[in-house]
Every structure is written in structure tokens, then in C-alpha cells.
User: What shape does this take?
Amino acid sequence: MLNPDTVKADFPLLGRTVRGGKPLVYLDSGATAQKPQQVIDAELRFYAETNAAVHRGAHQIAEEATEAYETSRDVVAEFVGADAAEIVWTKNATEALNLVAYGFLNASLAAAAAPGSAAAAAVTPEAIQRYALVPGDEIVLSEAEHHANLVPWQQLAQKTGATLRWISVTAQGRLDPETFSVIGERTRILAITHASNVTGAITDVEALVARARKVGAYVVLDACQTAAHMPVDLHALDVDFAAFSAHKMVGPTGVGALYGRHALLEDLPPFLTGGSMVEVVTMETTSFMPPPQRFEAGTQMVAQVVGFAAAVKYLRELGMDQVAAHESQMTQRLLEGISLVPGVRVLGPEDATDRLAVVAFEVDGVHPHDVGQVLDDAGVAVRVGHHCAQPIHRRLGVHASARASAGVYTTAADVDAFIAGLHEVRRFFAAPSDTGGH
Amino acid sequence: MADAMEQLYQQVILDHARVRQGEGELTEYGGESFQINPTCGDQVTLRVRLDPKGERIQALGWTGQGCSISQASLSVMHELVLDQPVARAEELGAHFRELMAARGKELDSARLEALEDASAFTGVARYPARIKCALLGWMALRDALVQARGRA
Assistant: This one.
């Protein structure tokens, strides 16, 4: 069994104090995870020993840097059950999702251009065949999406005339299977989160993929919340594209990844263009490299890629089954603890089944920002606001919420400190008439 | 509870957050402003009506939702600027922005006295994330006054 105290000792930041000497209780891993020394060292070592531009240069260091960059791709690919050639480095998951959306857009623009024109020839016939959207086509997502997996599709729909439809969320914060029927004959894309970053509810991907397959829609999975918290096997999940981000996986900021099936990446037009992604460039035209290089324009974030590989190695050594089992215990402790604080309502499933340790909640009569402030004064870091997911807040009848989210290093003591902080929130903001209540 | 929280959440602030002055929709108005704080989703719609000469704030009403800091700040602002000349309201707004920029240092006594209950927000300026909350209403007022004067 994973020992969170031993794990915690690997994360230097978690040893610091805040707000006048209080030990930090970090419960904001859903926003970004802290980094173990192993990741910090890997990035440092790269700069100290191996730094060079990759895929160019004839010198030894360039070779070593390229080797480190590409080996990292192997490591990260294996971690998520993919082949290395199916992993594209991006600056974050948002860019990965935009990369796919803009691939569809570029194909759609070419398809709509006059036959024989330069615009029509801007992408390959295969790209148009696969990716061109026309008015009446449908893009399906859910009310639970993070803005990163909502806004790019909304934009794509606006620009192509496609229709945006969505799966609803139940009052318990889960995707409502009764509304899965919005996936229909005209659905071309199903963009769905693997787990809500607000309610923690894990999506039944299998059921959705089965429906998407029936109608020939592509499935884009937002795996940001899950990749660091449970085993994720993208081939087994049978999705077409997936996005995830290193910084939520105890890795560096500035790097994320797009997964895409071989054949799909092969036909996808580029998003960002420029150096490093081209074969032959004349003043008139350019031919592009095969994937994944086609999608990695410009100088890459090599040190961060190397840090990303170190992060997944760290998680792999802990064992993702162990990580999931530990975090499930933290979920239970969070939910049980909260249930004993009067006037606090969990937004999302109240049991730990098919649920991550991401727990958004509201405190009766106290605004989330004030909740977060008093917790912060006790050294407890939580997130407040809409967590980049306004529609699901609206659906659950709140404008904003506070959210505690755990990680591999979260201990029972962390959860208990948070629960004690919640009691303090209640006491501090109690109306004068009920001072000393509960 | 630690002193830090009592310094931040002065009794004046908690009182104003509970019993809010000026909350409600104004039906006759010359200027309106909608302001949102995207980080926490707080929002306010503020309406203002000037006297016929366009010199004095005759009525002020606001609706919205937000944290205790933003709500209390709106309430205190309402008390301060109602029935005041527009120029005075703008001067008070400038003082309040200076208070927020002072990172918890007190302003000189003349300006602090002018701010009355709003001086209780001195401690808010120590928390960069809360400054926007405190300023939400004042931003709305400044914007609404520009419109109201344009029409007067």
C-alpha cells in the first residue's frame, strides 16, 4: 500500500509553511499538482548536462537532447497505453484540444472553398474526407466540460455552421445516461471529459464510445483529471483523441500531450505552422512532416518534456492501482468528514464509487471566496470560483464553489486539517444570533 | 481565530455583508454598469440616477452576487456616495483605489476619515486576490457615472 507520508517527503514544496508559520495543507491538486524532487532534478539535469535544440544540429549534445526528447515520448506513451508516434507534445491540454478543433476547422475551410482554388488545396483530400464539417453536422459534449473542452468546440461550431449539442448532468453531478441519445446520425465529434473537475464523477467512457462508434463519430477524451489519479489505457478505452497535461501529473508546467490514433493524426492538417514541422519549403508552398512532428512547430519545451517523463516514471513506480486505491480512501475521508459539518453541501456524488478525490462544495450562507480565505488562514489551500466550468455550476444551481482536491501525497492528516478548517469557517461566519451554534 | 482573519473581516465589513445598503433594482436611472470578476464569478449590476442638473447622485441601486468583501464594499460605497456631488463620489473612488494599492498600509488621516466605513477595507489590500472583490462596486460606479453624465 502506498505510504503517503513517504511520498510527501519527495515533494519539497509540501514541507513549507504559509500564513505566518502554518504547515501547508495542499488540497488544490486538481488545479495543479506539486512536483517531486525527481522531476525537479530531471529538468535541472537536462539544463545542466544535455540542453540543445532537438531534431537539428550535428553535434553530440543535440543528439543527446533529441534522444532524451524522443525517449520521453516512449515513456509517456506507454504510461497512457499508446504508441509513441501517437503522442504529440503541446504546451498544455488546452492547446491539444485546440489542435484537434483547428484540424477540423482547416479541413472545413478547404472543403468550403471554390474547387480548384488555392484554399481548397490547402489540406489533403484525405483531411477533407475525414474532418470537414458542414452545416447540420453535430458536435456533442457535456455540461460537465471544463472550458478547455467546451470553448474550442463552440468556436468550431460557430465557424463551420455545425450544431453544438450536449449531454446533461444529473443533480448528483454525473452525466445523465438518459441524454446520451443526443449522440445521433449527424454527430461527427463527441468531446467528453474523463472525469469532471468539479464533481469528480468518472465518465462511463465505454458506453459513450459504443454510441459514437455506431454513428461514426470521433471521440475526443479530456483526460486531464484522470491521468494522474487512476490507470488510463487509451487503446483500451478505444478513443480517437485524448488530451492531458503534465502539470496535473506531478510534472512540469508548459507541456501537455495530444493522443491521436495513427491513421487519424496522419490525415489531420497542422494547427501551428513554422519551423521543425516541414519537409520542403519554397516561396509558394510547403510540405509537412508526418505526425507527430507535423504538430510540433517551433522550438520545443524539451526540458519540460524530460520532466514530464520523470513525472510519469515517478507515478509508475508508485503504481497507478496503488495511487487510485489511496486516493479513493482520501475521497471517502473527505466525503465522510464533510457530511459531519452542518450546512455544507457536496456538489457531486456523495459516495466514493466511480469518483475522484475532487470535492466541490458550498457552505450555507458563506461565499466560496470567504470559505477559501478562512481555510487559507489555517494553511489549507483549496480552489474557489467556477474552476473553469461555469455551465456545470449553473446546472447545480450555484455561481461558484470551493473545491478540495487530493493527490498522491495527500494524507489523512491533510483531510482532517481541512475538515477542522471547515468547522472554523462555519464558526467565523456564523450570524450573530447563532453564535456558538452547532 | 487568528487575528489575521479578524483584521481582514472587520466587524463593519461583516455587518455590511449581512445587511446591505442600496441592494435592489433602480427602475429610473441615467447610467448602468455590469461588472464581473472572472476569477471568482462575482458580478454586479449597478444603476445610478443624477439630479436634473447632473451634479449630484440622487439614487443608486445594485443587484448581484459575490463574496462578503464585494457585497460589503458595495453597501459601504452606497452609504458614502448617496446624495453626494458626482465630483465627491469620484474623489472617494480615487481614495479607495489608493487604499487598495497601498498593500495594507494606512492612508493619511484626511483621506481615511473621508472614507469613513470604507477605511475598514485597509486589511483587504494585503490579499491581492481580494482587491478585485473590494473594487468591483467602485468600478461599476465609475462606469455608470460616466454614462449618467453623458446623458444629463
Remarks:
- Chain B has a mean pLDDT of 94.
- The CA atoms of residues 50 and 60 of chain B lie 9 Å apart.
- The interface with chain A takes residues 1-2, 4-5, 8-9, 14, 18, 39-42, 65-69, 71, 127, 130, 133 of chain B (CB under 8 Å).
- The radius of gyration of chain B is 15 Å.
